[in-house]
Amino acid sequence: MDAYKLCVEGVTRIYRDGERSLEVLQPIDLTVASGEFVTVIGPSGCGKSTLFNIIAGVDEPSSGSIAIDGDASSSRAGKTGYMLQQPLLLPWRTVEENIMLGLDVRRVPRKQAQQEAHELLKRFGLAEFAHHYPATLSGGMKQRVALLRTVLFNRTFLLLDEPFGALDALTRLSLQMWLLDLWQSFHASVLFITHDVREAILLSDRIYVLSARPARVLRVVDVELPRPRQPEFLALEQAVRLEQELVALLMKEQQL
Amino acid sequence: MKLRWIANYGPAFVLTVTLLVLWELYVRSGQISATVLPTPTSIVLALANNWDVISVQTLQTLVETVLGLAAATLVGLLLAILLDVSPAMRRAVYPLLVTSQTIPIIALAPLVLIWFGYDLGPKVLVVALYCFFPIAVACADGLLGTDPDLERLMRSMRASRWQILQLVRLPGAMPAFFSGLRIAATYSMTGAIFAEYVGAYQGLGIYMENSANAHAVVLVFAAILVTAALSLLLFGLVSVIERIALPWYQGAQVRAFGDAGMRRMG
Questions:
Q1: How many CB pairs below 8 A link A and B?
Q2: Higher pLDDT, A2 or A66
Q3: pTM to 2 decimals?
Q4: What number does CATH give the domain A4-80+154-253?
Q5: What's the complex ipTM?
Q6: Nearest chain A residue to B175, by CA
Q7: What is the domain count for chain B?
Q8: Distance in angstroms (rounded) separating the CA atoms of residues A85 and B149
Q9: What is the CATH number of the domain that holds B68?
């Protein structure tokens, strides 16, 4: 069991508002092995983000258990690197200071935090932007900074909620490759949300397909493409077949 | 840079000068007695001739204003944070806060005088009472405007409430805080003059009242001139502090340069 970075068992979430109740998650089982890249894909509004909030410790499940590193009892907050769709950079902090945010929360001494941030920026090619304010950066660059902030807070387990959803196709592709590079150099475990089937296939080891709300797991598929991944792999026969299969599955779930 | 200045401040300058010249000509043409409405030149002249007296009054009023504004800033900030602590606190305190602003300061000033006397303290108190509200409200709104996603992010990092306030919400509320402070700074001087009007040993307020009673209209205008100049100076000072404190905040630049600045940046 301890090989699992994350183990979600029978997690449900029901929101209650007086008389009315809204069931968002039906019992969901999901695992992420150590060093694995797992993607959750599903129609928009299906409850993927709710699942992530629960895993990140920002929300609590109505029932079921979540274990991170085999520990299901203590608080999950602080144990994941959570990144949302928006970069959420603080406009008054420079790139370097933004990356240090998580270390400030942990009360890491300033000098040490600065050094760690500096090394990370250098390693992933953003050193020249260290002292820029976010307002001067492009969308793709902001998302890179947000990703580095996430990694600097927790490089072992990343929860990425549609991080590239708002980017244009080319920027998105370059960030996808950048993320794979980052993932491999840190041997991180990643749980990734998207509704882009091709993105899921290009990045993941395993894909969970969720149904429309209330979300349940429709299918789990392994992606048998070689590593390191290249964008061309999407044209391989097995990738194309998988893509068609998943799109067909999701189309059935898509409500009008 | 010089051209920019002319483009930005030129129209206001031209309009002001034109109005002053019209005023001067109107009075000089004998349409109205110069003792009732003195000419701009005679006001400046009176200010220069009485500077030894007026400067002492000005210093007194300025000290009251600056101390009062500082107190208002402190109280406003603390109140905003207090309102932010819990929704229940907000619901309890906010209506009280708004109600406090419906009490006319002109009625309150004599009471403060009766309760606390003629010293510096009560004047500072009136200025603070007059000024804390815009600061508190603007800052509280700024705190409320925090992106809920940012709070989620911070909570996923296991940040405490205090850390979220300190690292995310307060810095994010600073532009709003400065808007409030700028408003407060603009009429802080008026608050001090109010307080002096109802009774003081010295200050521009009591000087204006005494001058008016002596029908020395020109001296009233001289004191008004000083008040306006200092109020503008305070406003400018707050803008300068804002630009130094919030180098990332471009909105400050847009406002300080006016419309022309906005077009250039857009």
A1: 61
A2: A66
A3: 0.84
A4: 3.40.50.300
A5: 0.91
A6: A92
A7: 1
A8: 9
A9: 1.10.3720.10
